[in-house]
Amino acid sequence: MTLAHKKARPIKPGGIYPAKDLCSQCGLCDTTYIHYVKDACAFLNQQFDHLETQSHGRSRDLDNPEELYFGVHQDMMAAQKKEPIAGAQWTGIVSTLAIEMLNKGLVEGVICVQNTEEDRFGPMPVIARTPEEVLAARVNKPTLSPNLSVLDLVEQSGMKRLLAIGVGCQIQALRAVQDKIGLEKLYVLGMPCVDNVHRDGLKKFLETTSRSPDTVVHYEFMQDFNVHFRHEDGSEEKVPFFGLKTNQLKDVFAPSCLSCFDYTNALADIVVGYMGAPFGWQWIVVRNETGAEMLELIQDQIKTQPVESQGDRKPAVQQSIPAYEKGVTLPMWAAKLMGVVIEKIGPKGLEYGRFSIDSHFTRNYLHVKRKYPKKLEAHVPEFAKRIVAQYKLPDQ
Question: 20 to 30 Å CA-CA from 196: which of 122, 249, 310, 368?
Fold first, then answer.
């Protein structure tokens, strides 16, 4: 095994890591950088304002509605690759950007996540040095992943220019220690993230939700209010949000994810997801000049259109709060009908993004308030408090 590769360590039993049951298994504590964990961990030390200023030159403007929700940014758009990458989860924008940065010599390696030989959903963080190694990491792994477990190898390898691909909790820890790694330049490509699971939780989710859990290649909660599953034979399966067995699934999500308020990956240079784009398009958020430089590399390989916003999310969010609390599950016929109606008249584009943020922030705020009341004030960032304050919660 070379310095370019490292298998993910098995997740240890709860209570061993400093964040204990709130640990998101970002991988920092599997390295010598564990010495910085009390400052760096997203669940031990919430420091959005400081790290936004460090990463972007300023913190978000809380009086700007778009920045309140989506963080510091210069530009925002919907995009698709003109020639999609075969086997990519969507059209392959993340993989394309990483490959271009390697090919043009901007970076010497890319922190990304392949899967283990035994399990397509088993995360195996690597430092990819070739396009082939980047492509081997395509498709999201919807489980907790110790991406930062390869940080010691970055320093040992002597590389000075690095691209890190990751989700919010990983990126917050990375930003907190980035000046300790010996890099001349760090690029960060973020993805929005919500509701990851341990591997056992993923097994339960698939078995509870999909018609064929053993053949699922990837899945995503999409803007049409359906969970989209793709199977080994190329077929697609759609399950409406409102038909999920909420009463059986409330305990599958990791406690860290139920206590997270960085859905939009606020500290990345550029973010690629889908939550603010029309169905079938990707959502790109350029947060700073480094992100703009990265996007320019693939500008001729993508088509773009402006982001739009339609509908009113607030009634649906308010109704969803008690429904989640009570574990309400509709009969499948009713769930499909409601999905069709909401897709036609419900929130779209950025308003769908706000719907998703509101739904998760209200749920997570209640979770922290009930499970970790002493952490509530310090742990929930001001932007999340303002978002949650728009709604009437059960405990009020």
Answer: 310
Helix spans in the chain (H): 37-40, 48-56, 65-70, 93-103, 131-135, 151-157, 168-177, 199-209, 246-249, 289-297, 314-325, 332-345, 350-371, 376-379, 382-388
Q: Would you call 386 helix, strand, or coil by DSSP?
A: helix
pLDDT tens-digit series, residues 209-244: 999 999 999 998 888 888 999 999 989 999 988 788
Domains of the chain: 20-197+256-309 (3.40.640)
> pLDDT, tens digit, for every residue of 19-72?
999 999 999 999 999 999 999 999 999 999 999 999 999 999 999 999 999 999
Rounded Cα–Cα distance for residues 157 and 112 (Å) = 16
DSSP states of 40-75 = H-TTT---HHHHHHHHHSS---TTSHHHHHH-S-SE
